[in-house]
Every structure is written in C-alpha cells, then in structure tokens.
Amino acid sequence: MLVLALDTATPTLVAGLARWSPDGATEMLAERAVPSGNRHAELLTVAVTEVLRDAGRTLADVDAVVTGLGPGPFTGLRVGVVTAAALGDARGLPVVGVCSLDAVGSGARTVVTDARRKEVYWATYAADGSRADGPGVVRPEELGPVGPVVGDARFAERLGVEVTPAEVMTAGLVRAAAPQLADPSSAAPLVPLYLRRPDAVPPTSFKPVTTA
User: Fold this and answer.
1) Which CATH architecture group holds 105-166?
2) How far apart are CA 137 and CA 121, in angstroms?
3) Which parts of the sequence belong to the Gcp-like domain (predicted)?
4) Are 173 and 5 in contact (CB under 8 A)?
5) CATH fold of 1-101+168-196, please?
C-alpha cells in the first residue's frame, strides 16, 4: 500500500510517501520536513508535489492518506486535515487521522511539543508504544513527565529533565496509522485535536460605518 502522510501540527510541516505492508514493514520513498512557521497553507501543496516527484510517483499511485490530527494551533492544523480530506475525497481513498504526538519517538516516553502561550502539548506512552495518557496541554513546570522525554528540547530547563530532540516524521505517522490502514473501515472521522479554543473571537460590538 502506497501511503501519503501529512502533518501540519507543529512549526515543521511534514509530507512523506511510504510503502506500507500489513506485516508492519514500512519502506520510506521520499519525505519533506519544512520549517514553515505559519506558512502551512502556502507550502504544503509544494511539499506534496516534491515528495511525489522525488519518489517517481503521482497521486494516481497513492492508495491511502494519513494525516496528523494534532494537537496543534487551529489555523495550521486544519490545513493538513482539510488537504488530506480533499485528496481522499477526490481520489476515493481511505484517509486515516492519528494523534501527531503518537508519531514522535518510540517506546516508553513522554512527548512534548510547543503549544505556544508558554505551554506544551504532551502525551505519555508505554513500552509497547501505546498511549497511556494524554494528549493534554499544560505549563512545563506542572507536567511531571514519566520516563524519557522526547520532542522539543527547548523546554528541557522548564521541565527539569533532559529532552531528546524529536519531531513528527512520516515513519511515525504510518506506524501510528497501521491498525486503521490494515482495516480502513475502522478509520474514525477526522476530528482535529485543538485542545484549546482559537485565539480569534467574533467581535461583541460594531462601530457604525456612517453617522447621521
């Protein structure tokens, strides 16, 4: 199965193409990890095009799409989710959503990523890689991580522990999606994990544009 994987939950946009088989084997064909800041909408289509070109494939060759569901910022996160949904709808492909934190590191660990507002997104995992707790959002000083910590190393001092640098990668996204790739009918609806309300709010009052 040829899988296109996308993630826009962090400041590094990820697009990759991998060949996955039900026995768990994953062969990486091409990947782009692009520091994108707030430019996910501008850069995602370019990254997908480059990945397909590097692998010598086209969208017609893709059998499934995997997308990270966050947690992440509202605007950036929905770019990846909407793009994955659109590609799946256009080609009639199964689209699998996974928690983006599940794609960071492996084994027993606590994953932390930047949630802005001086907070981190986090989740903890058992030795078999299954998620034991989270995802959540909290100030680093309040987390009390369990086991080795991986993710955004900039939070090491505030966490009070060493953080091994790690990011969302295509192989991790495909690994997290494996049960749903094996049985596409089990794929749940794509529900982004925002965890917080968006910063933008509707205005509560309006100024008149003309005066009597």
Assistant:
1) 2-Layer Sandwich (3.30)
2) 4
3) 38-143
4) yes
5) Nucleotidyltransferase; domain 5 (3.30.420)
Q: Is 16 helix (H, G, I), strand (E, B) or coil?
A: strand
Q: Pseudo-torsion of CA 38, 201, 140, 11, nearest 10°?
A: -10
The answer to whether 18 touches 181, Cβ cutoff 8 Å, is no
What residues contact residue 30 under an 8 Å CB cut-off, 6+ apart? 16, 17, 50, 51, 52, 54, 55
Which tokens is 120 given? 């981190």
| Per-residue model confidence as pLDDT tens digits over 34-43 | 998 888 889 9
- Candidates 79, 111, 105; CA nearest to 14 is 79
34 neighbors 13 (Cβ within 8 angstroms) = yes
Write out the two tokens for 187. Answer: 């794929």
Select the more confidently predicted residue: 208 or 165: 165
Secondary element (H or E) of residue 35: strand 26-35
pTM: 0.89
Domain-wise residue ranges, the chain = 1-101+168-196, 105-166
- Do 1-101+168-196 and 105-166 agree at the fold level? yes
**Confidence bin at 32 (pLDDT 50/70/90):** very high
